[in-house]
Structure formats: structure tokens, C-alpha cells
Design goal:
mainly beta; five-stranded antiparallel beta sheet; 29 strands
Length: about 350
């Protein structure tokens, strides 16, 4: 974990809760501090963001987490993102996550429990979806798991596979790589997690051989082996985030793995903390080291800066993004500052 953060951060927010839309913040290269630089409010609830590249330079993508789910693209070369055309509907409800893979923009559609693939033009503009893959199933939770709820969609490190994390069905779905001709998402298999886990997001080990699935309904990290040749994910262990229990309801939200593979950090809503887990040399064992305050309330997202020196937490209910400096010897984060952003929901760098 070395180097320094620089450039810009893009912050998503819930406009339905008074958020400003997409905020642009400059990053101090020495301290990592964020300074408000502008905002754009062109779509409702741009709750999750990702940065890609088109022919003219960086392109910012945002979901619109609404019933008529959509994505929007922005020219990110200027001081404030400029909308590139109208938002495009994804063919699913309430998209909560997006990712870029093989010339496509992928979305996880929480409300409808589906995954969508939208082709991208050379300029980075999304086209209507070439594929919408529904999920099936349910889980034991009486309210949250009555039906599928896709919460994350992400390519594996090789780019050969697409994984979809489904909170409603306690599973991680695996699809073959995107068909270059049709853009299809071809189902390949699924990995079941313990009933009631409510998996939300996963993060890969830098070696690409392991993945860590964070449960939202059960505060655990499930360690999995990933076989990129066979496209197979196999659970090998589980680490509770609160071995002694907790007195308040909790909903873990976002896992982050250190670039050197030594630590895993997980944001936990309810206790409003960041759990620090140490990973062994193989990446197959995760041990809870400590839990520290995140610096706000209800950390919906947690990301590592490009240099690996600090974490940024989007604290939805207290309305700010906090940055936490990392102790390079222990991996323990320490809150160092914050930027007010009402209903903050995610952070992306570009």
C-alpha cells in the first residue's frame, strides 16, 4: 500500500432523499481530502457509478435506481460531467450496480431480480439491452427473500465470466462470457450460500483464485475458491463479522480487498463500522482483526483509492463521504476527514 491518491472522485446519491445527484470532488494528492467541485442532477437516484473510456476519453456511467430502471452516460473529460444523450432503460427494475465488460455495460436489477447487458458504442454510449437474464428462486427471509434480488454483477479477473450476486436467492450466478455477436448472457452455473445469508457484493483476491462474498442478512464473509478455467465458485469457509453478536440490526454493504491481498475491509450499516479482516498468504482464510467507526451513519459503499492508501465510505444517512487513512503495518483504517453529500450512496474514481 504505497503511492498517493490524485485526480477526481465521483459521488452518487439518492435524489429521492434530497441528494444532489452526481457530485464531482477534487482529491488532494497528499492527504486524500475531498473538495466539492460541482454536481449534475440529470437522472433520478444515480446510486451507483462506474468509469470507463470512449474514443474521446473517460466516460462516467450511472444507474438510475428507479422502477423504470435506466443507465446514463456522461462525458467526464470536463470539470463537470456532461450527459451523453438520454438515459437508456435496462429492461429491469431498480438497478443497484453496474460494471463494464467486453464492450458492454452490465447492470444488476434488484427489483426484478435480473441482469442486463447493454452494448456500448465506440464513443461509450449505451444502447438498449441485448440481453436481460431473469433469475429464479427465493430464500427463507420472510420479507427480503420472497423473490430474486440481483444486487451486483461483475466480471471475473480474467474477463471470461460474469458473476451475479443475488440477495433474494442466496446464490452467486455464473454466466459464460458475453457472446460477441448477440450480447447474450449465457447461464453456466450457480453457487449456493447458506440459507438466509442474503449475499450483497463480492470482491476478488488479487491472485484471482479466491472471492469473498459479503452477506447482508447474515453478517458474514464467505470465502470461496474461484476456478477461472471451469467457471466454478466453491465455498470453503465463513467468517462472522461479529463473533460475539451485536445488539443492533446490521446490514453489511461493501467488501474491499487490499491490492497486496493481506486485508479485507467490510462496511457494516447499523453499527456504522468498518470490519478489518486479515487474509492468510493463500487467500483462503479470513480472520476478523478489529472493528472501527466509519465516521458516519449507514455506510452504503466502501472503496479503496487507486493508490491503496485510504478508504472512502459513502454514508447515506448522515450525508457525507468520509476518508479513512490506512495503517500500512496493521491494515486498520482511521477516519481522517469528510465531505458533506446528502444521501451519499457510492464513490468512483476517474
Amino acid at each position: 500500500m504505497s503511492g498517493s491518491a490524485a485526480g477526481r472522485a465521483f459521488i452518487g446519491s439518492f435524489t429521492s432523499a434530497g441528494g444532489p445527484g452526481i457530485v464531482v470532488a477534487d482529491i488532494d494528492p497528499r492527504t486524500g481530502a475531498l473538495t466539492w467541485a460541482g454536481a449534475v442532477k440529470s437522472v433520478a437516484d444515480p446510486s451507483y457509478l462506474a468509469v470507463g473510456h470512449g474514443e474521446a476519453g473517460p466516460v462516467l456511467y450511472a444507474v438510475s435506481e428507479t422502477v423504470a430502471g435506466a443507465v446514463a452516460a456522461y462525458d467526464a473529460t470536463g470539470a463537470v460531467p456532461r450527459p451523453l444523450g438520454d438515459p437508456v432503460q435496462v429492461g429491469g427494475d431498480e438497478p443497484t450496480h453496474l460494471a463494464l465488460a467486453q464492450g458492454y455495460l452490465l447492470t444488476a436489477d434488484y427489483g426484478s431480480g435480473s441482469g442486463s447487458a447493454l452494448p456500448l458504442t465506440a464513443e461509450g454510449l449505451p444502447l438498449p439491452p441485448s440481453a436481460v437474464l431473469p433469475h429464479e428462486g427465493s430464500g427463507p427471509h420472510p420479507e427480503r427473500q420472497r423473490s430474486p434480488h440481483a444486487h451486483q454483477i461483475v466480471p471475473d479477473p480474467t474477463g471470461r465470466w460474469v458473476l451475479g450476486v443475488d440477495l433474494g436467492t442466496d446464490s452467486v450466478r455464473i454466466c459464460c462470457s458475453l457472446d460477441e455477436r448477440t450480447g447474450g448472457l449465457c447461464p453456466h452455473g450457480a453457487t449456493a450460500l447458506p440459507p438466509g445469508t442474503g449475499p450483497r457484493h463480492l470482491a476478488f483476491h488479487p491472485s484471482g483464485d479466491h472471492a469473498y462474498v459479503l452477506g447482508e442478512l447474515r453478517p458474514t464473509v464467505t470465502v470461496c475458491r474461484w476456478d477461472a478455467v471451469a467457471g466454478a465458485l466453491r465455498t470453503v469457509g465463513e467468517t462472522p463479522l461479529f463473533p460475539g453478536g451485536t445488539d443492533v440490526p446490521v446490514q453489511p454493504s461493501a467488501p474491499v480487498v487490499a491490492p497486496d491481498g493481506r486485508y479485507l475491509w467490510a462496511a457494516v450499516r447499523g453499527t456504522d463500522t468498518v470490519a478489518v479482516l486479515a487474509l492468510d498468504a493463500s487467500g483462503e482464510r479470513a480472520e476478523l482483526v478489529t472493528v472501527v467507526p466509519c465516521g458516519g451513519r449507514w455506510p452504503r459503499d466502501l472503496v479503496l483509492d487507486p493508490a491503496g492508501r485510504r478508504l472512502y465510505a459513502a454514508n447515506e444517512r448522515s450525508g457525507e463521504v468520509t476518508w479513512l487513512d490506512l495503517d500500512t503495518a496493521t491494515g486498520v483504517p482511521h477516519p481522517a476527514g469528510s465531505l458533506p453529500v446528502v444521501a451519499a450512496s457510492s464513490v468512483a474514481f476517474g
